[in-house]
Amino acid sequence: MADDAAKPYVAERLARLRQKMEATGTDLVALAPGAHLRWLLGFAPAADERPSLCLIGPENACFLMPALNADDSRQHTDLKFFEWKDDVGPAKALAEALGYAAPRARRFGLDETMRADHALMLTDALAGCGRSFASETVGGLRMIKTADEIALLKDNARIADIAQVAVRDALAEGISESELAAVVQETFAAHGARPTFAILAIGPNSAYPHHHTGSATLKRGDIVLVDIGGMKNGYNSDITRMVSFGEPPAGYRDVHQVVDAAVRAAMAAARPGVSARSVDLAARQVITDAGYGDFFTHRTGHGLGTEVHEQPYITSANELVLEEGMVFTIEPGIYLPGRFGIRLEEVAVVTANGCEILSGLSRDLAVV
Fold first, then answer.
1. Which one, 45, 73, 115, 367, has the greatest CB density within 10 A?
2. Which strand (E) or helix (H) includes residue 336?
3. Measured between alpha carbons, how far is 33 from 45 in angstroms, rounded to an integer?
4. Stretch 331-354: mean pLDDT, rounded?
5. Which CATH superfamily hosts domain 7-142?
6. Are 262 and 280 in contact (CB under 8 A)?
7. What topology is assigned to 147-367 in CATH?
């Protein structure tokens, strides 16, 4: 079903995409069913082994569409369709669609999430054309959030804060990670959001950055890493906080302070005109100086919007210059095998003079 939050923006987003295409020398953008297309048009057709592509040229845009999906898809878009049937195959319809959208294409942008067989089919049909990825065009637009998009992200952050508190209220001797994840899911649903993930890691399991929530149960003295996210109106939340069931393990509080200092350093570095790399390095330097550099094993953050992980990626290898309206997580961590792990995660919006944090929930250790 079409995303109601995106529908009013379709014409404006298509116009912005064409401006971006002109600026990057891209004559054609080819999108598969997925996040880029859903952001652009407010819907994505069914995705399977049958090629279904949206082709956007300088003036015209159309779909290469399997016939069995055409009638349903027409409910969501007025773009022209070039249909093909299983007993004929897509080759003729693809040639006609390309001739309509961009008959003189010299360089095209390929959806980086497209199936390999569909990408090769398209590349063969555009033999001799230069090639880039849609992350350069559509992805570049998605990185800069509008005020309406930021408002949706703020609402999702509010719901995620409520879910974090619900986990704390549910802590009890013997409760399992899976049972706590169910509390998260129920809380998101009660506020009109769809839960997308819930990492609940008790005790030593918190030392696994992407722990698979399981059957471990809670006892006094355990800490719990709570990394959760949900989606409402097509946009996501993502937040990590730490909770202790009783007094935390020896040494925990000191490490927690280091991680929080790393978050604050990254927040201070995040502003227009600086690189994503500099934000990562600001957090990483705090942790390294404290002697835990070998235990910070991932990037400092990732973009957040219609996907949980999208551009920009806050890594020490990314020279991308930050701009006002970019939204990304700041989530440094320290993971001590066999003991505990600590990750504190905020969602930051780059503003004219710095950044704004969406969560209203303290990063202090919550002791229950």
1. 45
2. strand 333-336
3. 6
4. 98
5. Creatinase/prolidase N-terminal domain (3.40.350.10)
6. no
7. Creatine Amidinohydrolase (3.90.230)
